[in-house]
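EI: anyone free to look at a 341-residue chain?
SC: sure, send it
EI:
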Amino acid sequence: MDRRTFLQLGAGAAAFGLAAGVMQQAARAAGGLVALVHTQAAGDNGPVDAMIAKLKQLSTEQGFTYRAVYAQDPATYETVFRTLGDAGASIIVSTFNEVAEPFKALAPSYPNTKWIQLFADPFEPAIPNVVTVSYDYYLGCFLSGVFAAKMSKTGKIGFIGGVSIPPLNADFNALKAGVHSINPNATVTAAFAGSFQDPAKGQEIATQMFNDGIDYIQTDAAATDGGIIAAANEKEGRMVSCLSPAQFALGPKSVISIVGLDFGVSLYNEVSKALGAAWKGGAHEHTGLGTGVINFIPSPLFAEQGPAELTARAKEALKDVDKVRAGILDGSVKVEFKTTL
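SC: here you go
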Protein backbone atom coordinates (compact mmCIF):
# COMPACT_ATOMS: atom_id res chain seq x y z
CA MET A 1 0.00 0.00 0.00
CA ASP A 2 1.47 3.37 -0.97
CA ARG A 3 1.60 6.38 1.37
CA ARG A 4 -1.21 8.23 -0.36
CA THR A 5 -3.59 5.29 -0.09
CA PHE A 6 -2.63 4.80 3.55
CA LEU A 7 -3.45 8.39 4.43
CA GLN A 8 -6.77 8.26 2.64
CA LEU A 9 -8.17 5.29 4.58
CA GLY A 10 -11.49 6.07 6.29
CA ALA A 11 -11.76 7.29 9.84
CA GLY A 12 -14.65 5.17 11.09
CA ALA A 13 -14.36 2.08 13.25
CA ALA A 14 -14.69 -0.29 10.30
CA ALA A 15 -11.93 1.49 8.40
CA PHE A 16 -9.73 1.36 11.48
CA GLY A 17 -10.24 -2.38 11.71
CA LEU A 18 -9.07 -2.80 8.13
CA ALA A 19 -6.15 -0.42 8.62
CA ALA A 20 -4.86 -1.71 11.95
CA GLY A 21 -2.19 -3.94 10.42
CA VAL A 22 -0.95 -1.12 8.23
CA MET A 23 -0.77 1.26 11.18
CA GLN A 24 1.21 -1.26 13.21
CA GLN A 25 3.77 -1.40 10.39
CA ALA A 26 3.87 2.39 10.26
CA ALA A 27 4.37 2.62 14.00
CA ARG A 28 7.46 0.45 13.72
CA ALA A 29 8.88 2.63 10.92
CA ALA A 30 11.60 5.20 11.54
CA GLY A 31 10.21 7.94 13.76
CA GLY A 32 7.03 5.98 14.54
CA LEU A 33 3.44 7.07 13.90
CA VAL A 34 2.15 10.50 14.96
CA ALA A 35 -1.63 10.81 14.73
CA LEU A 36 -3.85 13.87 14.80
CA VAL A 37 -7.46 13.12 15.72
CA HIS A 38 -9.58 16.17 14.90
CA THR A 39 -13.21 16.44 15.95
CA GLN A 40 -14.12 19.16 13.45
CA ALA A 41 -13.97 18.62 9.70
CA ALA A 42 -11.11 19.71 7.48
CA GLY A 43 -11.77 22.40 4.89
CA ASP A 44 -12.47 25.06 7.51
CA ASN A 45 -9.83 27.57 6.34
CA GLY A 46 -8.88 27.61 9.98
CA PRO A 47 -7.71 25.41 12.88
CA VAL A 48 -8.06 21.95 11.36
CA ASP A 49 -6.52 22.83 8.00
CA ALA A 50 -3.64 24.56 9.78
CA MET A 51 -2.96 21.58 12.05
CA ILE A 52 -2.96 19.08 9.20
CA ALA A 53 -0.61 21.25 7.14
CA LYS A 54 1.84 21.70 10.01
CA LEU A 55 1.76 18.01 10.91
CA LYS A 56 2.56 17.16 7.31
CA GLN A 57 5.40 19.69 7.30
CA LEU A 58 6.87 18.34 10.52
CA SER A 59 6.64 14.74 9.31
CA THR A 60 8.75 15.67 6.29
CA GLU A 61 11.30 17.45 8.47
CA GLN A 62 11.53 14.77 11.17
CA GLY A 63 10.93 11.60 9.17
CA PHE A 64 7.89 10.11 10.90
CA THR A 65 4.67 8.72 9.45
CA TYR A 66 1.61 10.83 10.18
CA ARG A 67 -2.11 10.26 10.02
CA ALA A 68 -4.91 12.82 10.30
CA VAL A 69 -8.19 11.27 11.42
CA TYR A 70 -11.58 12.99 11.46
CA ALA A 71 -13.56 11.62 14.41
CA GLN A 72 -16.99 12.98 13.58
CA ASP A 73 -19.08 10.97 16.02
CA PRO A 74 -18.31 11.24 19.76
CA ALA A 75 -19.42 7.62 20.12
CA THR A 76 -16.32 6.57 18.15
CA TYR A 77 -13.71 8.61 20.04
CA GLU A 78 -12.60 5.81 22.33
CA THR A 79 -12.49 3.33 19.44
CA VAL A 80 -10.33 5.69 17.41
CA PHE A 81 -7.90 6.35 20.26
CA ARG A 82 -7.76 2.70 21.31
CA THR A 83 -6.99 1.57 17.76
CA LEU A 84 -4.16 4.09 17.48
CA GLY A 85 -2.82 3.04 20.88
CA ASP A 86 -2.97 -0.64 19.95
CA ALA A 87 -1.11 0.20 16.74
CA GLY A 88 1.74 1.58 18.82
CA ALA A 89 1.36 5.24 17.91
CA SER A 90 4.21 7.18 19.47
CA ILE A 91 2.23 10.44 19.76
CA ILE A 92 -1.52 11.09 19.67
CA VAL A 93 -2.69 14.70 19.36
CA SER A 94 -6.35 15.63 19.62
CA THR A 95 -8.43 18.74 19.83
CA PHE A 96 -10.98 20.53 21.97
CA ASN A 97 -12.70 19.81 25.26
CA GLU A 98 -14.80 16.89 24.06
CA VAL A 99 -11.83 14.50 24.00
CA ALA A 100 -10.89 15.03 27.65
CA GLU A 101 -12.84 12.08 29.04
CA PRO A 102 -11.60 9.59 26.40
CA PHE A 103 -8.04 10.78 27.11
CA LYS A 104 -8.51 10.22 30.84
CA ALA A 105 -9.99 6.79 30.24
CA LEU A 106 -7.40 5.49 27.79
CA ALA A 107 -4.05 7.29 28.19
CA PRO A 108 -3.04 5.38 31.36
CA SER A 109 -3.44 2.10 29.43
CA TYR A 110 -0.92 3.24 26.80
CA PRO A 111 1.99 4.60 28.87
CA ASN A 112 4.43 4.42 25.95
CA THR A 113 2.30 6.77 23.87
CA LYS A 114 2.58 10.53 24.40
CA TRP A 115 -0.85 12.17 24.44
CA ILE A 116 -1.39 15.87 23.70
CA GLN A 117 -4.75 17.63 24.01
CA LEU A 118 -4.95 21.05 22.37
CA PHE A 119 -7.56 23.50 23.74
CA ALA A 120 -7.89 21.78 27.09
CA ASP A 121 -8.39 22.31 30.79
CA PRO A 122 -5.77 20.89 33.17
CA PHE A 123 -6.32 17.30 34.26
CA GLU A 124 -6.85 16.79 37.98
CA PRO A 125 -5.02 14.64 38.87
CA ALA A 126 -2.44 14.94 36.10
CA ILE A 127 -1.68 11.89 33.94
CA PRO A 128 2.07 11.22 33.48
CA ASN A 129 1.96 10.72 29.70
CA VAL A 130 -0.50 13.54 28.89
CA VAL A 131 0.14 17.22 28.19
CA THR A 132 -2.84 19.59 28.01
CA VAL A 133 -2.60 22.99 26.31
CA SER A 134 -4.86 26.00 26.82
CA TYR A 135 -4.89 29.33 24.98
CA ASP A 136 -5.30 32.79 26.42
CA TYR A 137 -7.32 33.78 23.36
CA TYR A 138 -9.31 36.21 25.46
CA LEU A 139 -6.30 38.53 25.54
CA GLY A 140 -6.44 38.85 21.76
CA CYS A 141 -10.18 39.49 22.03
CA PHE A 142 -9.49 42.36 24.43
CA LEU A 143 -7.23 43.90 21.75
CA SER A 144 -9.97 43.37 19.19
CA GLY A 145 -12.34 45.23 21.50
CA VAL A 146 -9.97 48.19 21.68
CA PHE A 147 -9.73 48.19 17.89
CA ALA A 148 -13.50 47.78 17.45
CA ALA A 149 -14.23 50.76 19.69
CA LYS A 150 -11.94 52.89 17.55
CA MET A 151 -13.34 51.58 14.26
CA SER A 152 -17.10 51.41 14.85
CA LYS A 153 -19.19 54.31 13.61
CA THR A 154 -22.37 53.14 15.35
CA GLY A 155 -20.89 52.18 18.71
CA LYS A 156 -22.47 48.75 18.27
CA ILE A 157 -20.19 45.72 18.28
CA GLY A 158 -21.12 42.05 17.96
CA PHE A 159 -19.61 38.70 18.95
CA ILE A 160 -20.60 35.38 17.37
CA GLY A 161 -19.31 32.20 18.97
CA GLY A 162 -19.80 28.57 18.12
CA VAL A 163 -21.08 27.36 21.50
CA SER A 164 -21.40 29.09 24.86
CA ILE A 165 -18.67 27.38 26.88
CA PRO A 166 -16.43 28.97 29.54
CA PRO A 167 -13.47 29.83 27.27
CA LEU A 168 -15.70 31.47 24.64
CA ASN A 169 -17.66 33.29 27.31
CA ALA A 170 -14.32 34.67 28.51
CA ASP A 171 -13.50 35.75 24.96
CA PHE A 172 -16.74 37.73 24.74
CA ASN A 173 -16.25 39.32 28.15
CA ALA A 174 -12.71 40.37 27.22
CA LEU A 175 -13.93 41.83 23.90
CA LYS A 176 -16.56 43.79 25.81
CA ALA A 177 -14.00 45.00 28.35
CA GLY A 178 -11.69 46.13 25.56
CA VAL A 179 -14.50 48.06 23.89
CA HIS A 180 -15.56 49.73 27.13
CA SER A 181 -11.97 50.69 27.98
CA ILE A 182 -12.21 53.06 24.99
CA ASN A 183 -15.94 53.77 24.70
CA PRO A 184 -17.95 53.08 27.89
CA ASN A 185 -21.19 53.92 26.08
CA ALA A 186 -20.80 51.32 23.34
CA THR A 187 -23.03 48.24 23.24
CA VAL A 188 -21.53 44.78 22.81
CA THR A 189 -23.87 41.92 21.89
CA ALA A 190 -23.13 38.17 22.00
CA ALA A 191 -24.78 35.35 20.06
CA PHE A 192 -23.91 31.69 19.64
CA ALA A 193 -24.61 29.57 16.57
CA GLY A 194 -24.81 26.30 18.49
CA SER A 195 -22.15 24.79 16.23
CA PHE A 196 -18.64 25.38 14.97
CA GLN A 197 -19.61 23.95 11.58
CA ASP A 198 -22.77 25.80 10.51
CA PRO A 199 -21.99 28.65 8.07
CA ALA A 200 -25.70 29.08 7.26
CA LYS A 201 -26.52 29.81 10.90
CA GLY A 202 -23.52 32.12 11.14
CA GLN A 203 -24.77 34.08 8.13
CA GLU A 204 -28.27 34.31 9.57
CA ILE A 205 -27.06 35.69 12.92
CA ALA A 206 -24.56 38.08 11.34
CA THR A 207 -27.13 39.44 8.88
CA GLN A 208 -29.49 40.22 11.74
CA MET A 209 -26.70 41.90 13.71
CA PHE A 210 -25.67 44.06 10.77
CA ASN A 211 -29.30 44.98 10.11
CA ASP A 212 -29.58 46.05 13.75
CA GLY A 213 -26.76 48.55 13.30
CA ILE A 214 -23.78 46.51 14.46
CA ASP A 215 -20.88 47.29 12.16
CA TYR A 216 -18.04 45.23 13.70
CA ILE A 217 -18.30 41.53 14.59
CA GLN A 218 -15.66 39.43 16.31
CA THR A 219 -16.06 35.76 15.41
CA ASP A 220 -15.17 32.75 17.54
CA ALA A 221 -16.84 29.99 15.57
CA ALA A 222 -14.36 28.08 13.33
CA ALA A 223 -16.07 26.92 10.10
CA THR A 224 -19.25 28.84 11.03
CA ASP A 225 -17.19 31.96 10.32
CA GLY A 226 -17.65 31.42 6.58
CA GLY A 227 -21.29 32.50 6.80
CA ILE A 228 -20.45 35.50 8.98
CA ILE A 229 -17.95 36.69 6.39
CA ALA A 230 -20.51 36.14 3.62
CA ALA A 231 -22.96 38.40 5.45
CA ALA A 232 -20.31 41.09 5.86
CA ASN A 233 -19.46 40.93 2.17
CA GLU A 234 -23.00 41.92 1.23
CA LYS A 235 -22.52 45.61 2.07
CA GLU A 236 -19.54 47.94 2.27
CA GLY A 237 -18.64 49.19 5.70
CA ARG A 238 -19.37 45.95 7.52
CA MET A 239 -16.30 44.75 9.42
CA VAL A 240 -15.42 41.29 10.69
CA SER A 241 -12.51 40.13 12.82
CA CYS A 242 -11.98 36.38 12.45
CA LEU A 243 -9.57 33.62 13.46
CA SER A 244 -7.25 32.57 10.65
CA PRO A 245 -5.08 34.34 8.04
CA ALA A 246 -6.71 32.09 5.43
CA GLN A 247 -9.91 34.06 6.00
CA PHE A 248 -8.42 37.36 4.81
CA ALA A 249 -8.97 36.33 1.20
CA LEU A 250 -12.63 35.41 1.86
CA GLY A 251 -13.45 39.05 2.56
CA PRO A 252 -10.69 41.40 1.44
CA LYS A 253 -12.99 44.41 1.94
CA SER A 254 -14.72 43.16 5.09
CA VAL A 255 -12.33 40.95 7.10
CA ILE A 256 -10.40 43.73 8.77
CA SER A 257 -8.40 41.66 11.25
CA ILE A 258 -8.06 38.38 13.07
CA VAL A 259 -7.57 37.35 16.63
CA GLY A 260 -5.16 34.70 15.51
CA LEU A 261 -4.94 31.41 17.34
CA ASP A 262 -2.54 29.44 15.20
CA PHE A 263 -3.38 25.83 16.02
CA GLY A 264 -0.92 24.77 13.35
CA VAL A 265 2.02 26.48 15.06
CA SER A 266 0.83 25.17 18.42
CA LEU A 267 0.68 21.59 17.14
CA TYR A 268 4.09 21.99 15.49
CA ASN A 269 5.60 23.24 18.76
CA GLU A 270 4.01 20.57 20.97
CA VAL A 271 4.78 17.62 18.69
CA SER A 272 8.34 18.87 18.22
CA LYS A 273 8.80 18.83 21.99
CA ALA A 274 7.19 15.40 22.27
CA LEU A 275 9.63 14.01 19.71
CA GLY A 276 12.51 14.97 21.99
CA ALA A 277 13.91 12.89 24.82
CA ALA A 278 13.38 15.70 27.36
CA TRP A 279 9.57 15.71 26.97
CA LYS A 280 7.69 15.44 30.25
CA GLY A 281 4.02 14.62 30.57
CA GLY A 282 1.72 15.36 33.46
CA ALA A 283 1.80 19.06 32.61
CA HIS A 284 -0.51 21.85 31.51
CA GLU A 285 0.67 24.69 29.31
CA HIS A 286 -0.87 28.17 29.01
CA THR A 287 -0.27 29.81 25.63
CA GLY A 288 -0.84 33.53 25.23
CA LEU A 289 0.40 36.72 23.63
CA GLY A 290 4.08 36.77 22.76
CA THR A 291 4.25 33.02 22.01
CA GLY A 292 3.73 33.17 18.24
CA VAL A 293 0.43 31.34 18.65
CA ILE A 294 -1.98 34.10 19.73
CA ASN A 295 -2.06 37.69 18.51
CA PHE A 296 -4.29 40.42 17.10
CA ILE A 297 -3.34 40.85 13.43
CA PRO A 298 -4.69 43.41 10.93
CA SER A 299 -5.49 42.18 7.43
CA PRO A 300 -3.01 43.31 4.79
CA LEU A 301 -5.67 42.74 2.12
CA PHE A 302 -8.11 45.05 3.90
CA ALA A 303 -5.38 47.68 4.17
CA GLU A 304 -5.06 47.52 0.36
CA GLN A 305 -8.67 47.00 -0.72
CA GLY A 306 -10.91 48.18 2.13
CA PRO A 307 -12.89 51.44 2.07
CA ALA A 308 -10.45 54.36 2.18
CA GLU A 309 -12.08 55.96 5.21
CA LEU A 310 -11.82 52.75 7.23
CA THR A 311 -8.27 51.93 6.20
CA ALA A 312 -7.15 55.41 7.25
CA ARG A 313 -8.93 55.07 10.59
CA ALA A 314 -7.42 51.62 11.10
CA LYS A 315 -3.87 52.96 10.83
CA GLU A 316 -4.51 55.25 13.77
CA ALA A 317 -6.47 52.66 15.77
CA LEU A 318 -3.66 50.11 15.48
CA LYS A 319 -1.33 52.50 17.31
CA ASP A 320 -3.62 52.24 20.33
CA VAL A 321 -3.79 48.46 19.98
CA ASP A 322 0.01 48.25 19.99
CA LYS A 323 0.18 50.30 23.21
CA VAL A 324 -2.37 48.07 24.94
CA ARG A 325 -0.61 44.90 23.73
CA ALA A 326 2.63 46.17 25.25
CA GLY A 327 0.77 46.87 28.48
CA ILE A 328 -0.61 43.33 28.65
CA LEU A 329 2.84 41.87 28.06
CA ASP A 330 4.54 44.03 30.71
CA GLY A 331 1.72 43.51 33.21
CA SER A 332 0.53 47.10 33.39
CA VAL A 333 -2.78 46.21 31.67
CA LYS A 334 -4.82 43.50 33.40
CA VAL A 335 -7.55 41.57 31.60
CA GLU A 336 -9.99 39.50 33.63
CA PHE A 337 -10.68 35.90 32.62
CA LYS A 338 -14.41 35.88 33.25
CA THR A 339 -16.24 32.74 32.12
CA THR A 340 -19.85 33.65 32.89
CA LEU A 341 -22.06 35.76 30.63
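EI: The longest helix spans residues 308-330.
SC: 👍
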